[in-house]
């Protein structure tokens, strides 16, 4: 066996583990951790950038570190007796830097090694059944999996080619912002766009949001996008709905680095005026918009293109469709499921026992793992509801189906909708609370199938709805779950009272 390795460390060219995980984001870390926990099996994670993945350095952590001071300032600005705080941009960016550990993953590597998971640096691809080739500056290395290879490579941003030549910002630049563009145009109206406009406007950019759809946050209840739209406009953000950007030009585009303005002015042409369209009533989109920077936030797709899938007879659709051989699994954004950290970690937790229980292969295969097997579900996995919090002002916290999704699924549903701020616990948090809350109830089963809360600090309320859906608690039983007074959870009382009387009593 040849010895070689980076920085003088002794590494073998070839190595064998029970589980080889490609990608060290939250899903990959959890897949490795829970596959070997309490089993005596071995696991390695191959990571080409930073252990901890997109979430830790470029996505969830820095975005929420930037949004929290903005939220606190907004709250303070709506409480008589407190002067609206001045945001100290440098201090906020410094706090963001500390939350991303200065883009240094030593802590995450130490954590992995501490739980017995090896970390190999490099870009991995499938080189055959159970075989992973890793390329790094130190050379090529081959890893073999006795039981399973787990694809946890996350997702890549979609950048339409007509925008790409302008070297626009992606979400990494927005979360890693160093230079605040004076005029920032954002294309997109989904989660990333709505969160990024919130912190970039607060940090001082004059933002124009260009939204192709008729509304913001199209996958949530309509009243969620309406509340966020009203709030953004009240803060001075220009929002053009139903507007497509048809052309982008930037004569002096330059890759100046993460979070820095990427060159000279950028000019966007929109479809305003085409077919008599004016963007939206009272606020027509101009045909041309000039900005200092452009952020493109129009979705992400599973990062599967460099994995050599065709070499093992597979396509990206096989991965996202779950048509995989028994030695191969996918978790997290790479699997094409809800692209959320908590969802990827959950799927890794429930799949891990099945990974460990795959029969060992090869002469040195470890004994079969006793007591492991497919994870027991209380619910059909398809029925486990996905929660999400969008950290805008107001916050949007939802779980399970919207009313429309439930109807589209053929359910006979009844809904209850109330203004969130009409309960004392919410009204006490700040003056002028906005937003509504809604329960979606399956009339036949008398249980929740979805809930949405829009308002101040609703992020902490939604988990009660998740528990109610997973526990299949009938709504008449939920009436005995008494919220403390005066807390935001009292919105549950108003919602349950707004349901038809026959659903409130035991059948
Ligand atoms: C701006 C932004 C904000 C977000 N905020 C939230 C939030 O608040 N809450 C939430 O739940 N979700 C949020 N998300 C989504 C969340 O970041 C993702 O769902 C999550 O990171 C997915 O985890 P993952 O482990 O599947 O992939 P990732 O975190 O993307 O990790 C994948 C890892 O695989 C590595 N990799 C890829 N290919 C290879 C290869 N061939 N070889 C070796 N390594 C490879 C990558 O370098 C990366 O480190 C946000 C996303 C963005 C963009
Ligand atoms: N707080 C959170 O949980 C959080 C925060 C940020 C991101 N995320 C995750 O990251 C994922 C990606 O976020 P995102 O905002 O990029 O995607 P998204 O799917 O939420 O929104 C994309 C938006 O872009 C629009 N769009 C698509 N193609 C377009 C085009 N060519 N031109 C103009 N508009 C176009 C879509 O209609 C949609 O409104 C989300 O699905 C979310 O799960 C989560």
Automatic annotation (TrEMBL):
Q: What's noted on cofactor binding?
A: Binds 1 FAD per subunit.
Q: Can you say what this protein is called?
A: Dihydrolipoamide dehydrogenase
Pfam families per the UniProt record, alphabetical = Pyr_redox_2 (PF07992), Pyr_redox_dim (PF02852)
Q: Which cofactor does it need?
A: FAD
Mention one GO molecular function.
dihydrolipoyl dehydrogenase (NADH) activity
The alphabetical list of record keywords is:
FAD, Flavoprotein, NAD, Nucleotide-binding, Oxidoreductase
Organism field? Janibacter alkaliphilus
> Which SUPFAM superfamilies does the entry link to?
FAD/NAD(P)-binding domain (SSF51905), FAD/NAD-linked reductases, dimerisation (C-terminal) domain (SSF55424)
Which E.C. number(s) belong to this protein? 1.8.1.4
Protein's UniProt keywords contain Oxidoreductase: yes
Taxonomic lineage of the native organism: Bacteria, Bacillati, Actinomycetota, Actinomycetes, Micrococcales
């Amino acid at each position: 066996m040849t010895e070689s390795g980076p920085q003088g460390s002794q590494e073998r060219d070839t190595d064998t583990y029970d589980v080889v995980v490609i990608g060290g984001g939250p899903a990959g870390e959890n897949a490795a951790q829970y596959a070997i926990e309490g089993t005596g099996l071995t696991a390695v994670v191959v990571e080409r950038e930073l252990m901890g993945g997109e979430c830790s350095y470029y996505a969830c952590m820095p975005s929420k570190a930037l949004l929290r001071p903005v939220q606190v300032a907004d709250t303070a600005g709506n409480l008589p007796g407190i002067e609206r705080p001045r945001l100290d941009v440098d201090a906020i960016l410094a706090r963001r830097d500390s939350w991303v550990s200065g883009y240094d993953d030593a802590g995450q590597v130490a954590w992995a090694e501490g739980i017995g998971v090896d970390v190999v640096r490099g870009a991995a691809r499938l080189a055959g059944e159970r075989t992973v080739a890793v390329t790094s500056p130190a050379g090529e290395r081959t890893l073999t999996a006795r039981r399973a290879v787990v694809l946890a490579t996350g997702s890549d941003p979609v950048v339409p080619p007509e925008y790409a030549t302008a070297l626009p910002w992606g979400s990494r630049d927005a979360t890693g912002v160093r230079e605040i563009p004076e005029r920032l145009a954002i294309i997109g109206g989904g989660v990333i766009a709505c969160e990024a406009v919130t912190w970039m406007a607060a940090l001082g950019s004059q933002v124009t949001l260009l939204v192709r759809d008729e509304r913001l946050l199209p996958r949530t209840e309509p009243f969620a996008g309406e509340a966020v739209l009203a709030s953004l406009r009240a803060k001075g953000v220009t929002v053009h709905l139903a507007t497509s950007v048809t052309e982008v030009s930037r004569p002096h585009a330059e890759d100046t680095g993460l979070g820095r303005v990427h060159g000279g002015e950028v000019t966007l042409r929109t479809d305003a005026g085409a077919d008599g369209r004016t963007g939206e009533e009272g606020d027509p989109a101009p045909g041309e918009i000039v900005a200092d920077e452009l952020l493109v936030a129009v979705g992400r797709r599973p990062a599967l293109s460099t994995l050599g899938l065709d070499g093992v007879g597979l396509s990206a659709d096989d991965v996202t469709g779950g048509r995989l051989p028994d030695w191969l699994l996918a978790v997290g954004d790479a699997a094409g499921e809800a692209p959320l950290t908590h969802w990827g970690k959950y799927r890794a937790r429930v799949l891990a026992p099945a990974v460990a229980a795959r029969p060992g292969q090869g002469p040195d295969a470890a004994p079969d793992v006793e007591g492991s097997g497919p994870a027991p579900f209380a619910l059909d996995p398809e029925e486990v509801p996905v929660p999400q919090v969008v950290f805008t002002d107001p916050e949007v916290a939802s779980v399970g189906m919207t009313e429309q999704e439930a109807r589209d699924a053929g359910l006979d549903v009844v809904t209850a909708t109330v203004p969130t701020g009409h309960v004392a616990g919410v009204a006490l948090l700040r003056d002028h609370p906005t937003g509504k809350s809604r329960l979606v109830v399956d009339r036949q089963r008398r249980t929740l199938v979805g809930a949405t809360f829009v308002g101040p600090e609703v992020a902490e309320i939604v988990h009660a709805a998740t528990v109610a859906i997973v526990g299949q608690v009938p709504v008449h039983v939920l009436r005995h779950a008494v919220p403390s007074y005066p807390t935001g959870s009292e919105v549950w009382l108003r919602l349950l009272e707004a349901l038809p009387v026959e659903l409130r009593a035991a059948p």
